[in-house]
Amino acid sequence: MPEELLNRYLQETDILHNVAYDENKKDDGFIGSGMDCAVIPLARHKNYFLVQTVDFFYPLVNDPKIMGKIALSNVLSDIYAVGVTTFDKLNMIVSVSTEFSELEQDVIVPQIVEGFLESAKEAGIRVHVQSISYNPWCIIGGIASSLCTEAEIIMPSNAKDGDAIVLTKPLGTQLATNAYLWMEEKNDKYIKISARLSDDDIKKTFNMAVKSMTFLNKIAAQLMHKYNAHAATDVTGFGILGHAKNLARFQKDKISFALNKLPIITNVVTIGEILGQDIKLKSGRAVETSGGLLICLSADKAKAFCDDFFTLSNKEQQAWVIGSVKSAEDRDAYLQHNVEIFEIDQ
Ligand code: MG
To answer: How far does the centroid of ligand 1 lie from the alpha carbon of residue 104, in Å?
Structure first.
């Protein structure tokens, strides 16, 4: 759902005011609607919080197993965003499309579930099947829950003037996955793209997007504790700028986020330019799926964080310093006018 529309619905139900940081509720340790997951103090167990999220997705790649892996990674991402890395329960939600033939059901559904379970195992989580239902749309998702002490949670509200902003996955997943589907369909968009990019280029771009979307944000969450991060969110449907704005609104201090770099998966800028779809991408508004964490931490720790992240991911994934936190009245986020767009090709 577009960010503006979601905000309008929330406004109309009077939920949105909970998104902005409330001066009067400074220390109640509660997150309701608006941020990535719920953080709920337990009334009868004072030292514990229930950290919980629910999310589900429609297929965006043709490979059901990969789709299961992307969905798992994306469901957990909202919990990783508050620094929580252990889970007590993960319920899987699957809806089988009523348009699938019996054969399609028999082939597709087990593969989706297999991908989901395989990645859950990697994350160290046992999965409960919540429900498998019929629906016009194929849906895969889950409900992730963790019972935590306060020390396990990094509330996303403590960014400070002078902090660095780090991003742990490259941008451009939507065009990267779409281009691959267009190539398989051999449609008009593919014909335009293929004038400048080879099929191997498109495959390479797609494979990078898949590697990124299936990569768990767990290492990033663990390093948030090691480097004493002040706030974080995960980058998904609102694009990096939308999520940065959302996080900025939630800060205790009067600060803004200035983004000066956008790391984008190789060839995605070219694909965007060919199709006239580069404006959103270059303005930080392109929709992402299972994106990285956007993390605020002390500037003097940012390089060590990025180096550590690269090492712990077996040099498979990079993190970059992409901006800084500055004192400001408006609690907003923006791209600097000289924002540097750079291609990531490994
Ligand atoms: Mg989120």
So the answer is: 31
